[in-house]
């Protein structure tokens, strides 16, 4: 061996090259093998799986959830790249977020959104809800009255679904005459055998190609959701467990005592509602717009949300003003479109389109722009 | 049997002399002093400026800075956070650049190889010196940060990123974990440096090349359009040391960083061997 290397020194370079190939190839292969490993699960029909999911119940679980998005958005000023709130927003639409979840029944839930050197926690323990932000060392403590528990549950998933369960619920709500439901071979998510349920919109105008739910073979809860845009092989949106354990977490996980030096605010219930609204600018805008009157045109996968933008009022604070300026910059960078319905600006991505008309309406839907123009003309 | 014994003794002597050489070199001592000075400067600056507490957390500043006033422990973390992107890599680059190229530059490399020292063993001893430096550097920063912090701000229970409190002792243990993790990361950087050092006879060239590589790696890691490249970057998981400051700690979150480091070490040590074992030593 060493004789060969001595007589032909150039051959030595084969060793580091081989090492590099093994390291890079090994990493890639490990992923493919895990993905293609065919788990053996008893056959279940799509309908059975749907029922399984709805009746699934676990006493406790903990795990890591990763959300990735690749919506194919155009470059937007202040949103793509940069830092601060723009970067956070950017991460949500193109990039990945990691969260750790602990669940031990409806009233014991902890969600920790992991940042690079920070963390945002939402912890619910009985009637106490704590929100902790490590970036500014602050905590918000809210108490929910026992009779408002069901209402509270509805308020939480505003915006992007937080857990695979929520995302699956949203997808299942859309199932009906508009959707073809099939199953494919089994999948493997977070090292667990899972069934895969494929929801395909029947309406050809929808931009959504497929929604794939991975359902745990044993516990029947959704482990992952992939949303594919039409004609694209990689998911535009993916929320899945990276690691999951079905052991009931230690009750200590749900106890939060604000550490010394923490700013603690205890908002009243009314303020709390507002807080939830302002979690994201978009959520706030949505909530406001809802107050101004929104309607849904069309139904199923091709429904278009039509909202009227609130008029600018003097009540906005300085911080809000900066946001508005940024929003204006974004709006002005979008291409202008016009037609018999009027004129406005169009935001187009692989998965959805949004139209901002000059008369102050916002139309959003998982459809091609033509469908939006049609709705705008109504 | 006796032959084996003699070999072992010789080996440890070579290593000991290498470590002694590294330790007595003035520039290495100055480098360590500079590393230790940064947390002290941070602590004094925070003490003097002492921003009013109502303004805390508004602008924030770099990570961990806002917590320094309430607990000296965070001086160490702030120091590590500040030094990780440039100072620590430069320290390793200085050490690694010197390893082979330094000997070649001084003309001592051929004498070193005339004594019965195999080239592989020479590389191994040189790398061992780099590894020691890689683990020592973050420990020095942390120790100086803890001392400066305790002196100026006092200690107390440490708040984790998850908002729980742990005792100061447990905090120190976490800090030790952070130092060890970064030690592994810097060891991988040192392997790349050792390879660069075998390519040239100018130690400065290897040092600058390694520093530039580190900075380039950090910059590439910031560009979202290149996210397909990110898993392969050496520096991508360095900031993961924050995982050790959560509660509960998920050790599996450190796995990608350790695997990346291991991969870099394997590939670049092989490359250093391929280059050095077949090279004509003329100086």
TrEMBL record, chain B:
Alphabetized UniProt keyword annotations: Membrane, Transmembrane, Transmembrane helix
A Pfam cross-reference name: ABC2_membrane_4
Report TM segments.
30-50, 70-96, 127-153, 173-196, 203-223, 253-274
Q: Which residues form a coiled coil?
A: none
Q: Which PANTHER family match?
A: INTEGRAL MEMBRANE PROTEIN-RELATED, MEMBRANE PROTEIN
This protein is called ABC transporter permease
Native organism is Winogradskya humida
- Tell me the classification of the organism that encodes this protein: Bacteria, Bacillati, Actinomycetota, Actinomycetes, Micromonosporales
């Amino acid at each position: 061996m060493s004789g060969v290397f001595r007589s032909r020194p150039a051959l030595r370079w084969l060793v580091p090259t081989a090492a590099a190939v093994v390291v890079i190839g090994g990493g890639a292969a490990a992923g493919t093998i895990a993905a293609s490993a065919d788990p053996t699960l008893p056959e279940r029909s799509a309908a059975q799986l749907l029922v399984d999911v709805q009746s699934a119940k676990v006493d406790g679980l903990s795990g890591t959830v990763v959300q990735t998005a690749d919506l194919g958005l155009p470059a937007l000023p202040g949103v793509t790249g940069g830092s601060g709130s723009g970067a956070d927003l950017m991460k949500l639409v193109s990039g990945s977020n990691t969260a750790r979840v602990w669940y031990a029944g409806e009233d014991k839930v902890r969600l920790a959104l992991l940042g690079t050197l920070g963390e945002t926690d939402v912890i619910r323990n009985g009637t106490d809800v704590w929100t902790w932000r490590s970036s500014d060392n602050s905590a918000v403590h809210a108490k929910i009255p026992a009779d408002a528990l069901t209402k509270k549950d509805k308020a939480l998933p505003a915006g992007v679904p937080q857990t695979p369960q929520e995302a699956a619920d949203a997808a299942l709500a859309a199932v009906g005459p508009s959707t073809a439901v099939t199953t494919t071979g089994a999948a493997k998510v977070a090292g667990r055998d899972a069934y895969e349920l494929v929801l395909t919109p029947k309406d050809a105008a929808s931009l959504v190609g497929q929604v794939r739910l991975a359902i745990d073979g044993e516990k029947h809860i959704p482990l992952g959701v992939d949303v594919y845009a039409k004609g694209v092989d990689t998911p535009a949106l993916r929320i899945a467990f990276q690691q999951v354990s079905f052991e009931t977490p230690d009750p200590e996980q749900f106890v939060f005592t604000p550490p010394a030096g923490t700013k603690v605010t205890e908002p009243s219930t009314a303020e709390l509602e507002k807080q939830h609204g302002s979690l994201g600018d978009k959520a706030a805008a949505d909530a406001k717009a809802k107050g101004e009157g929104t309607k849904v045109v069309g139904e199923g996968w091709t429904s278009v949300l039509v909202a009227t933008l609130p008029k600018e009022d003097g009540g906005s604070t300085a911080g809000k003003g900066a946001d508005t300026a940024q929003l204006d910059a974004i709006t002005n960078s979008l291409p202008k479109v016009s037609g018999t319905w009027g004129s406005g600006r169009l935001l187009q991505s692989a998965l959805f389109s949004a139209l901002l008309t000059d008369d102050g309406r916002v139309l959003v839907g998982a459809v091609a722009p033509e469908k939006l123009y049609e709705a705008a003309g109504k | 049997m006796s032959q084996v014994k003699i070999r072992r003794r010789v080996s440890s002597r070579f290593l000991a002399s290498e470590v002694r050489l590294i330790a007595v070199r003035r520039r290495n001592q100055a480098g360590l002093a500079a590393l230790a000075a940064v947390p002290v400067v941070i602590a004094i600056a925070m003490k003097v400026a002492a921003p009013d507490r109502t303004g805390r957390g508004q602008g924030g500043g770099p990570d961990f800075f806002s917590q320094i006033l309430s607990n000296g422990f965070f001086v160490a973390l702030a120091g590590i956070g500040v030094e990780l992107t440039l100072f620590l890599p430069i320290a390793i680059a200085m050490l690694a650049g010197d390893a082979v190229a330094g000997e070649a530059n001084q003309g001592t490399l051929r004498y070193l190889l005339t004594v019965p020292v195999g080239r592989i063993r020479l590389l191994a001893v040189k790398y061992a010196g780099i590894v020691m430096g890689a683990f020592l550097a973050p420990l020095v920063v942390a120790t100086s940060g803890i001392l400066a912090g305790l002196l100026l701000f006092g200690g107390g229970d440490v708040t984790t990123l998850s908002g729980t409190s742990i005792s100061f002792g447990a905090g120190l243990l976490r800090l030790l974990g952070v130092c060890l993790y970064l030690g592994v990361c810097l060891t991988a950087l040192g392997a790349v440096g050792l390879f660069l050092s075998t390519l040239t006879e100018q130690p400065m060239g290897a040092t600058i090349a390694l520093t530039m590589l580190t900075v380039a790696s950090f910059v590439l890691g910031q560009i979202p359009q290149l996210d397909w490249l990110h898993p392969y970057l050496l520096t991508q998981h360095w900031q993961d040391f924050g995982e050790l400051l959560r509660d509960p700690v998920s050790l599996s979150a450190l796995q990608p960083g350790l695997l990346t480091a291991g991969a870099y070490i394997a590939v670049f040590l092989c490359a250093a061997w391929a280059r050095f074992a077949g090279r004509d030593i003329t100086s």
